[in-house]
Specification:
Blueprint lengths: L3 E5 L3 H11 L4 E5 L2 H7 L6 E5 L7 H9 L6 E5 L4 H10 L3 E4 L4 H14 L6 E4 L2 E4 L4 E4 L2 E3 L3 H12 L5 E2 H8 L9 H14 L5 E4 L3 E4 L2
Parallel strand pairs: 1-2, 1-3, 3-4, 4-5
Antiparallel strand pairs: 6-7, 7-8, 8-9, 10-12, 11-12
Helix pairs in contact: 2-3, 6-8
Length: about 220
């Protein structure tokens, strides 16, 4: 069973974008106001993505009221970048936040981190002929185990969570190596080549001109 995400934002374009991006990995619930969000909480989501700046009942108030009833992780979507605003958000009960505008790859990483913290993340990801067990960090292909290094595993996981999406080399490096991109593409290219070879995915992990790579599904 997929984890259940409740997406709350008065901007329908943002809700639609998040729903489209995550719909293959999670069961998505949507709400467009604070009042509607409080009603949808009865569906017991595993994580709530909550906008702060909403008319009527803002996200801070919604978060405080939710905290009175259930212990559900909450990730704020906010345009507020001041440290004082972040502190207020955490004091209201948020587990994490991401500043608008954001990249979906970064949001996906934050969502997975929060879910894993609460032991609610997706334990198995099946894509093409590969199955990834995120709990044991093992990979099988057509039922046979595949030996991957830590970086190859992280690279595969990033592609699996972002199918059919062109990922910039900078994004790949920062997500897999968890450090700032310094402009050297050789490290990324080398690991992509190794992953392609181990999985026989030469035609699946394709190069995107002047961008990076995409997993074709």
């Amino acid at each position: 069973m997929n984890p259940k995400l409740l997406v709350v934002d008065d901007e329908r374009g943002i809700v639609d974008m998040i729903q489209s991006y995550f719909q293959t990995q999670y069961d998505i619930l949507t709400a467009y106001s604070g009042q509607e969000a409080l009603k949808k909480v009865a569906c017991k989501p595993d994580l709530i993505l909550l906008d702060i700046n909403m008319p009527g009942m803002d996200g801070l108030t919604v978060c405080q009221q939710i905290r009175e009833h259930i212990a559900c992780p909450i990730l704020f979507l906010t345009a507020r970048i001041e440290s004082s605003d972040k502190i207020i958000g955490f004091q209201a009960g948020a587990d994490d936040y991401i500043v608008k505008p954001f990249e979906m790859v970064e949001l996906a990483a934050r969502v997975e981190t929060v879910l894993r913290r609460y032991n609610k993340g997706a334990q198995r990801i099946a894509i093409l002929d590969v199955c990834i067990d995120t709990l044991s960090r093992t990979v099988t292909q057509n039922g046979r185990p595949v030996s991957l290094t830590n970086k190859e595993y992280a690279l595969l996981l990033l592609f699996a969570r972002n199918p059919n999406i062109a990922l910039f080399r900078e994004t790949i490096f920062e997500q897999v190596w968890e450090s700032n991109y310094m402009g050297d593409t050789r490290t990324v290219d080398l690991h992509v080549q190794r992953l392609r070879k181990k999985l026989s995915w030469d035609e699946r992990i394709t190069a995107v001109y002047k961008v990076g790579y995409r997993l074709e599904v």
